[in-house]
Amino acid sequence: MHRLFKTLFLLPWLSACVPSWAPGSGAQDWTPAAGAGRIHDFNWRLSGDRQVAPLQVFDDGRQTWLQFAPGQAMPALFVESHGIQQPAAYVRREPYAIVQGKWPSLIMRGGSLQARADYVGPASSAMAGAMPPMAPPAHFAVAPATAPAMASSGGVPGRPSTDAAGAAVQGSGAVLPAPSRGDAQRNKAGAFTAARLYRVGPTDENMRRALARWAGLAGWTFQAEHWAVDVDIPLSASADFSDDFKGSVRELVAATELGDRPLQPCFYANQVLRVIPLSQACDRTAARAGASL
């Protein structure tokens, strides 16, 4: 009876021992007027899987708001600085998740799906340089971003800049896009590490070998039979892309659109990558059905 009395007496005090920085806790950490009168910065770039990505991201220099769709499951949130990730301290106020502080990058994870938000505003370099390096917790393993396990269409969404200097694909007449100024700033600030960027160069010899190497880094399958083209496309110079596997593959393959053999990538749910002529369809079933009509 004495032990039961002590337990009942201590329960109200134990509930107050939850740290205020615990993810998703602390209603006192935020009030509706917390960001009143401040300038909100929407210079954030979203990439990755839409299922775990927010609709938009913005900050006021002290807190970062992630707006999620109604009914969307809340993914695990991580902050990243100097290439190190750790769980984010945030509070949930529908439809927002409000992360304490402003970080170079935010990571959203849900199972095998992953999305990220990178700050690309004019102060990104200074902000990343001002953030102190974080010591990763002993139980938290920092892993490079991998491609999500989901199916997508193989169409090429956009054509890279044709006036980028320095990197040409021999025999195709196409030009690889040069790194953007924002990418260069983030590289200097340390927000992205060299190992997490997808790159091509003369050492890869041709596009097929480069894609095979990229697929190995991202955990995808790309073998000789997945290159459904009768010739190899040599690489004569170097080019840097983002740390997103699918986006980098699309940009690289899109460089063939101006050549004699325009190609397109196909991504499948079993994490298999294929490269086929632009005139063909990624969905073989649909192609056969159309031919039978």
TrEMBL record:
Residues 203-276 form the Toxin co-regulated pilus biosynthesis protein Q C-terminal domain. Pfam families: CagX, TcpQ. InterPro entries: Conjugal_tfr_TrbG/VirB9/CagX (IPR010258), Pilus_synth_Q_C (IPR018927), VirB9/CagX/TrbG_C (IPR033645), VirB9/CagX/TrbG_C_sf (IPR038161). The keyword Cytoplasm does not apply. Coiled coil: none annotated. Residues 1-22 form the signal peptide. Keywords: Signal. Belongs to the TrbG/VirB9 family. This is Toxin co-regulated pilus biosynthesis protein Q C-terminal domain-containing protein. It comes from Bordetella bronchialis. The lineage of its organism: Bacteria, Pseudomonadati, Pseudomonadota, Betaproteobacteria, Burkholderiales.
